[in-house]
């Protein structure tokens, strides 16, 4: 006689409708999500590449597929050229503030960096350099700087640097010191995240995509270096 499995107490309760049925296994959904992620990664493999990088792939990629990205890249470059009216940091004073910042924010996003008057404030120096880089790269956005005590009388030194972001005449975001970022290790990738968050640039902007690719390559290189160092330590 074949042995019969004795139903568990939970099986009996489920059959009687007292407790709910077992949820389906998540494994098929996980596998489907992985396949979809791989498909999207393959489809978007040319995102953020420069025109010369696309030209170098002529022997590897379908011509129609390459032309699609070439045209997309040219359109993006033309759009940036039309919108890029700034390109450097504006050094402003208090009398200029309303015109250069509040009023100007009706036409484009305006970021104001209030820096320390003391040369010993390292975070102010770091953010000043990031503003210079960002202003040159995102010329459709207006970047300004002003000494904090010139903008607001008796502004606390401990709150420097402070970044105020304006749009349509209002402050939409403020960052007091760089503690909410990465301190003195804050990089352009963090500035990218801020610009995407406020809606000043899109998440798939070619400048941001390219920097992310570079960051990923650096991370992979550092990971391999660490693994090599670990192997060397074994000897």
UniProtKB/TrEMBL annotation:
<dbReference type="GO" id="GO:0005737">
    <property type="term" value="C:cytoplasm"/>
</dbReference>
<keyword id="KW-0808">Transferase</keyword>
<keyword id="KW-0328">Glycosyltransferase</keyword>
<feature type="region of interest" description="Disordered">
    <location>
        <begin position="209"/>
        <end position="235"/>
    </location>
</feature>
<dbReference type="InterPro" id="IPR036249">
    <property type="entry name" value="Thioredoxin-like_sf"/>
</dbReference>
<dbReference type="InterPro" id="IPR051498">
    <property type="entry name" value="Phosducin-like_chap/apop_reg"/>
</dbReference>
<dbReference type="Pfam" id="PF02114">
    <property type="entry name" value="Phosducin"/>
</dbReference>
<protein>
    <submittedName>
        <fullName>tRNA-guanine(34) transglycosylase</fullName>
        <ecNumber>2.4.2.29</ecNumber>
    </submittedName>
</protein>
<dbReference type="InterPro" id="IPR024253">
    <property type="entry name" value="Phosducin_thioredoxin-like_dom"/>
</dbReference>
<feature type="domain" description="Phosducin">
    <location>
        <begin position="52"/>
        <end position="213"/>
    </location>
</feature>
<dbReference type="GO" id="GO:0016757">
    <property type="term" value="F:glycosyltransferase activity"/>
</dbReference>
<comment type="similarity">
    <text>Belongs to the phosducin family.</text>
</comment>
<dbReference type="GO" id="GO:0006457">
    <property type="term" value="P:protein folding"/>
</dbReference>
């Amino acid at each position: 006689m074949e042995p019969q499995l004795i139903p568990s107490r939970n099986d009996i309760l489920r059959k009687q409708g007292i407790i709910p049925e077992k949820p389906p296994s998540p494994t098929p959904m996980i596998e489907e999500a992985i396949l979809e992620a791989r498909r999207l990664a393959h489809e978007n493999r040319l995102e953020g590449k420069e025109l010369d990088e696309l030209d170098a792939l002529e022997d590897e990629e379908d011509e129609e597929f390459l032309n699609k990205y070439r045209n997309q890249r040219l359109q993006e470059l033309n759009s940036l050229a039309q919108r890029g009216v700034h390109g450097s940091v504006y050094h402003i004073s208090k009398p200029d503030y309303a015109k250069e910042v509040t009023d100007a924010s009706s036409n484009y996003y305006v970021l104001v960096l209030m820096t320390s008057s003391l040369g010993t404030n390292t975070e102010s120096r770091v953010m000043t350099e990031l503003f210079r880089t960002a202003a040159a790269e995102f010329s459709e956005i207006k970047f300004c700087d002003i000494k904090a005590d010139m903008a607001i009388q008796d502004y606390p030194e401990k709150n420097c640097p402070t970044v105020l972001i304006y749009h349509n005449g209002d402050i939409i975001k403020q960052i007091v010191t760089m503690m909410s970022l990465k301190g003195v290790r804050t990089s352009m990738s963090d500035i990218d995240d801020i610009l995407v968050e406020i809606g000043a640039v899109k998440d798939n902007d070619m400048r941001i995509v390219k920097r992310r690719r570079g960051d990923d390559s650096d991370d992979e290189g550092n990971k391999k270096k660490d693994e090599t160092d670990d192997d060397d330590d074994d000897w």
